[in-house]
Amino acid sequence: MLGERLQSVRKRRGLSQRELAARSGVALSLVRKVEQGERNSVRVETLRKWAEALGVTTTTLLEADGASQPESSHPDDLAPLREALQTGATDLEDVPTADGLRSAVAGAVRLYHDGQYAELTAVLPVLVKEAQTLVEQGGPDALAIRARVLQLVGSLATQTRVFDVAEIALEGAVTDAIETGDRIEAASAVITLCWLLLRERRLDEARVRAVDWADEIEPRMSRASNMELSAWGWLLLRGSAAAIRDNRPDEADEMMRLALSGAVRLGREHGSYHEYFTTFGPATVQMKRVENAIIESQPERALQLAREVSPGLRPTSDNRNRHLLDVANARVMLREYDKALDIMTQLTREAPEWLPNQHYAKDLLTTIIGRRRTLTAEMRALADAIGLEP
């Protein structure tokens, strides 16, 4: 159990519970509750603080039974997709064409980036069946198209925390993409798979996969295409995200530095809603630097970096939304609760389907509410909008 693991490492370091709490900045009461078995899971950010104080990697603490993989929420929400993945191709009255399916996938990608999850959930089972039928027919681009469809399924399932569906889809996407011989297509699927691994707290696996693939496709800067730089850069960002959470700050900084070199080479955000590949460029890297600063509990630095994100360089909306939550978190850390609430209220208007799927948002609002004696109408409305349980 997590508590036993934490206690074992703490004792080996010769620290009392009080000393660990002081070094990590985590409440003594939480240390005690975890070690006594009253809490069997905590946020990765908390584990990282303990790992830093103890001089170990976060993975060392995540090896505890039940601590490494948070439970999926609403596991039956994607039941039609799970069934489509498991049943294979079916007889269709209208046989799909490669061009028609590509167009449909482009539209589905737009739904994903716009946060239209309910509509996307209805569309994807049909796309999965059509892609599987196309593969059975042996079309020349069938595997590449199915890889894109499966990657989109994996993205939706990861976003909505239905992890079993996400893993089936993304492992399939990687396999299909590798079989096409297109390394960049395969790297795209791996980037999404690493995101899933991060959400499942499989930090070491995410870091190793990202680094291995970044090494595999490392471009020559003088000749690299925009897509090659984007793929390489995103692999490095995933690796950096895993490393910073695993208390490997030097590795995280080095990967972020390399990603920035690729972004500078691009000079702008590259990508569009009509490609699955999410955008990559200077603004995206800068936003991920903000995220790393939040993980390291450096709110002032996070806000400074956030001010340096150019408003003229637009990332995809889902990456921007996550960035805004990081900025809100910085405000919470500085006890600027009204400013944090303003950001989250903005997100309820701009991303009403995206926000309720973010445990991050729920955690932030729970913290804010816990600091107030009474709730304002704005707080109650926000709690309802993100599905915060009473």
UniProtKB/TrEMBL annotation:
UniProt keyword list: DNA-binding
Record-level Gene Ontology MF annotations: DNA binding; DNA-binding transcription factor activity
Record protein name field: Transcriptional regulator with XRE-family HTH domain
Entry keyword DNA-binding: yes
Domain HTH cro/C1-type: 6-61
The organism's taxonomic lineage, starting at the top: Bacteria, Bacillati, Actinomycetota, Actinomycetes, Streptosporangiales
Pfam families: HTH_3 (PF01381)
Provenance organism: Nonomuraea jabiensis
InterPro entries xrefs: Cro/C1-type_HTH (IPR001387), Lambda_DNA-bd_dom_sf (IPR010982), TransReg_Diox_bact_type (IPR050807)
A GO term from the CC aspect: cytosol
Entry's transmembrane regions: none
Taxonomic superkingdom: Bacteria
SMART domains named among the record's database cross-references: HTH_XRE
